[in-house]
């Protein structure tokens, strides 16, 4: 089976270098191009998907449909779930990354962005909407480490994505930098020490071949062309 991970195209907040997390920007003009290009690259690979999973955030949903459009598989079922959302960035959400580094230092910002189990500072105020009304908001307001993100992503992996693969389906997942870093940590058995070095580019499909035991037998990154 094929398992493909795509990080959404550049968002308006990526463009402005802002901590995003569960904030809900749209794709930038470049992000739209990246999403279409991801679909074209997957089409060139000749992959026929059976099902698609994405988050409930606009940038991932827009990427899903632009990618499927260029892939000419817009007819596929698309399943959306908050468990595939970006890592919740707590009080950092909405802050500019460079300005935050100027205040707290590059090292602290790197720890917040890339460490495995350090949480961002706790957010105050409730910015959640009806998408999240069944969730434990107090927990989420604290903000998530990558480890927290992995823990909340895993039930969706087990119940839906792994279940699809076990049925022999080819699966496309369109999600976010850190929700995909957490999933990749699990899939590739990356250590806590090595995970800070893993970066996932926007709009660049990662194509895995997966066997019946759900072990990865091959990995190929469809390197994106430059638009700017
Ligand atoms: O802002 C965010 O939510 C993420 C992804 O864009 O950023 P970072 O690379 O800092 O984890």
Describe the structure.
It is an enzyme of class 5 (isomerase). Catalyzes the interconversion of 2-phosphoglycerate and 3-phosphoglycerate. Pathway: Carbohydrate degradation; glycolysis; pyruvate from D-glyceraldehyde 3-phosphate: step 3/5. Belongs to the phosphoglycerate mutase family. BPG-dependent PGAM subfamily. This protein has 228 residues and is an alpha/beta fold. It has one domain: Rossmann fold, CATH 3.40.50.1240. The chain is 39% helix and 13% strand. The chain contains eight helices and six strands. A six-stranded mixed β-sheet has the order 3-2-4-1-5-6. Strand 5 and strand 6 form a beta hairpin. Helix 2 crosses helix 3 and helix 7 crosses helix 8. The termini are far apart. The model has no long low-confidence stretch (mean pLDDT 95). Bound molecules: 2-phosphoglyceric acid (2PG).
In short:
With 228 residues, the protein is an alpha/beta fold. It has 8 helices and 6 strands, in the order βααβαβααααβαββ. Strands 3-2-4-1-5-6 form a 6-stranded mixed sheet.
């Amino acid at each position: 089976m094929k398992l493909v991970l795509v990080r959404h195209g550049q968002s308006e907040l990526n463009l402005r270098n802002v901590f995003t997390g569960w904030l809900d920007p749209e794709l930038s003009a470049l992000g739209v191009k990246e999403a279409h290009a991801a679909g074209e690259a997957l089409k060139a690979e000749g992959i026929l998907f059976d099902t698609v999973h994405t988050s409930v955030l606009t940038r991932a949903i827009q990427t899903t449909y632009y990618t499927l459009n260029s892939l000419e598989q817009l007819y596929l079922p698309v399943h959306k779930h908050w468990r595939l959302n970006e890592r919740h960035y707590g009080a950092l959400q909405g802050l500019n990354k460079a300005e935050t580094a100027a205040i707290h230092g590059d090292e602290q910002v790197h720890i917040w962005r890339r460490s495995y189990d350090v949480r961002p500072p706790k957010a105050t105020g409730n910015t959640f909407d009806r998408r999240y009304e069944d969730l434990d908001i107090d927990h989420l307001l604290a903000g998530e480490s990558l480890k927290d993100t992995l823990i909340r992503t895993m039930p969706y992996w087990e119940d839906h994505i792994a279940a699809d693969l076990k049925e022999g389906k080819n699966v496309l997942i369109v999600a976010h930098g850190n929700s995909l870093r957490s999933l990749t940590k699990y899939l590739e058995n990356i250590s806590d020490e090595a995970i800070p070095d893993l970066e996932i580019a926007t709009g660049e499909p990662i194509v895995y071949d997966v066997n019946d035991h759900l072990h990865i037998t091959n990995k190929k990154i469809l390197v994106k062309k430059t638009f700017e």
